[in-house]
Specification:
This protein is α+β, with helices and mostly antiparallel strands. It folds into 2 domains: about 1-35; about 35-185, Jelly Rolls. It has 1 helix and 15 strands. Strands 2, 6, 8, 9, 12 and 14 form a 6-stranded mixed beta sheet that branches.
């Protein structure tokens, strides 16, 4: 009878060790997984980005004519603040999809509201402004002081948000672009 109890204890210990290693390794695999999203032309269907780094593919502006007037459609992603605080948005590696050597310029507007119409003033090194002006590495030609309206290849902006507040990022670019978006709470 002693042997049976020992065998059962050993089997139980092995099963517990297997379960612990299985369930503790799953979250680490998720955090290391690459996050990728593609923007949507409808803000109500915009994919959600979270804190951390996400590779974003931003679709270009679509201009169309309706009843003699010209209109433009922009693409969107959104972020929902998990806690109240100051959030830092960093955009880097801004480039034309499939051609990193091509020059490209664009801007990213941060908006809030049920229908995103309220522009958020984002604090940058150049000052506070409602847009983050971006360019590819091939297009950057910065001399002197960087201002809010200077197109640069890496831009960081901070904004204060309340828990649950949604920020929509609207993309104004003529080409499909890829970039890294890092969001962190300061």
């Amino acid at each position: 009878m002693e042997r049976t109890k020992v065998k059962k204890l050993i089997c139980f210990g092995l099963i517990m060790a297997l379960l612990l290693t299985t369930f503790t390794s799953v979250p680490s695999m998720e955090t290391n997984a690459a996050k990728k999203v593609t923007s949507n032309y409808s803000y109500s269907k915009a994919p959600t980005v979270k804190t951390g780094t996400t590779t974003v593919t931003a679709k270009p502006i679509v201009t169309y004519k309706k009843n003699g007037d010209y209109y433009s459609k922009y693409s969107w992603v959104k972020f929902k603040a998990p806690k109240t605080g100051t959030y830092q948005f960093t955009i880097s590696n801004y480039a034309v999809k499939g051609n990193k050597k091509q020059s490209v310029f664009g801007s990213i507007l941060l908006m809030t509201g049920k229908t995103p119409k309220t522009l958020l003033n984002v604090k940058t090194k150049g000052g506070k402004y409602y847009a983050l002006y971006m360019c590819s590495a091939a297009a950057e030609n910065v001399s002197g002081q960087v201002k809010t309206t200077t197109f640069i290849k890496k831009r960081t902006g901070t904004v204060k948000l309340k828990k649950g507040q949604i920020v929509y990022l609207e993309f104004v670019n003529r080409e499909t672009v890829n970039f890294k978006l890092n969001i962190k709470r300061k």
